[in-house]
Amino acid sequence: MSGPVLEHALIERVAGAFRGSPLQLNGRHESDAELLRLPGTEAVLALTTDLVIEEIASGLYRDPWLIGWMAVTVNASDLAAVGADPLGILTSLTLPPDPPDDLIAGLRAGIGAATEAYGLPVLGGDVNRAAALAVGGTAVGLVPDGRPLTRIGARPGDRLFTSGPVGLGGAFAFLRLVGRGGGQAFDYRPLARLREGALLRRFASCCMDTSDGLIPALDELTRRNRCGFELTGRWDDALHADARRVLCGAGLPPWLALAGPHGEFELVFAVPAARVGPMRDAADANGWAPIELGRVTGEAGVVRPGPDCEPIDTTWVRNLYQEVAGNPAAYLSELLKSAKR
Amino acid sequence: MSGPVLEHALIERVAGAFRGSPLQLNGRHESDAELLRLPGTEAVLALTTDLVIEEIASGLYRDPWLIGWMAVTVNASDLAAVGADPLGILTSLTLPPDPPDDLIAGLRAGIGAATEAYGLPVLGGDVNRAAALAVGGTAVGLVPDGRPLTRIGARPGDRLFTSGPVGLGGAFAFLRLVGRGGGQAFDYRPLARLREGALLRRFASCCMDTSDGLIPALDELTRRNRCGFELTGRWDDALHADARRVLCGAGLPPWLALAGPHGEFELVFAVPAARVGPMRDAADANGWAPIELGRVTGEAGVVRPGPDCEPIDTTWVRNLYQEVAGNPAAYLSELLKSAKR
Fold first, then answer.
1. Do B51 and A94 make contact, defined as CB atoms within 8 angstroms?
2. What is the pTM of this model?
3. pLDDT score, position B178
4. Contact predicate B164/B269, CB 8 Å
């Protein structure tokens, strides 16, 4: 709806006064990766840095392989959302003083598998020692034609899509951190949508990943585009079957899996109506079926879960995890109270 | 001299099996920054990532301003050592859960001052929360002519230089971590040598920064070039006056300030004899006076502190801090024992 985003307030405190680069195409929060025009070429460099540390401290990620995989995936997904071709990644590992072999082997295998899957070779990196494990990186990509995707460009009437089923990230966090049972566990191993993002450069008017969940992504896109979204009656077709099973099995409304702050690295994007057909044809030729969520409206900041439905207070949802100081049980309880209203 | 570098052994454990990029010019440890040929241009991208965390945990860096300054400087210095023009930096901040205003303000001021000093604008970044403060970044630079400096290329007969006086990093660490007194404190605020590095692209045969201290840098360069170094009788002219004052004031041999592992971000580089005059002229025109340390020899792995002197066991010096598990007092005691031998 409206009001400040708590996460952005901290970033403003830290970075508010820094001078930018005349080569940079994007303002703050306007794209998933930073976009830099390369002097002497028409190409645009895409750069993003992300660290997996809170997810380790909270117990959300425990398996070294998954930690390594995610450290690459969170960065690759930002390249995907701007449609960049992957060039490589610099890894940043903060390890305990005497790291056991199985920790090292797991991290290495997870990082290696992800970099192979994405064609995002490890270019170098940095290793440090500290008590708390942290694994991250900086990914670099190239947009050869100089026309990256950003979060800005949606117009009323555009159609809204996701690259695939959503909600796995929320369901995984629910199982791990609240653990109400009812659903069986499942493998959480999200795949950054690099090929889909590169294809969407030709069709989409805006794009963002669901790394923080679908609802926070929709909130951000309404802010950047001063638009709204109206989801169709069947938008919950987009909910991943495993997420539905987990949430329903626990007696919870399945949309809770979309609330964030932990997501699944699909892309959410808008396409002008006239380009929807060609986009679907190109996607089909690549064995990919985007899922239609709804349409873009002119109601700034308003996300309606169906025609004639009351809007979702997306800002409240987005800020809630910080409001409850990252307490998963309190977070779920507040979400449920709001669902009853 | 020879034998494995302990720091490299950990990096091999972590990254040993990763596949590289066909666009990458450098192998592991061959340059201070990663060097990537940009498709469709003759330019080379320089990328480096570095995190300030161990220096905070050990108490070496306490002032938020200095922490911010150093987080930028460690990365800028790697760009300097490959002769890249600065494009920008992505910052990575891991902050305590409720960061106090003076911490935020100090970090922001230090980062801001350094990025202004280096012309290295903040392009974006990542903010996380964890118990231990960590501040780092990934710097990006461009070598427009595609001919970066690397650690490789020294030939016997080349002359060896530093960009300025060395030893401040060692003296600062001595005062902070061992604190034997005798010398007064001094401001430690090293300046990455970006302009000097860019100038050296035309003259130097190899280059590296002294971020880990001069002796470890010389050890690395002998390995990469299968060469040796013979320092001239007056090489200790290169010792910074403050470093000499601190070490002598504590009754210690001043060369201990060069042992690392904490350095001062000067450049150490070799220049073929025929290019020394032109290099000095170009430096002079920029108000810069490189300091001659000695010459490159064909004795692989041998660093002699003067003609006819016994070699320094540079590998032993370089590994010592890890051998004593990062205990500053034990480190100093072992260094002193070796000085007496």
1. yes
2. 0.96
3. 86
4. no
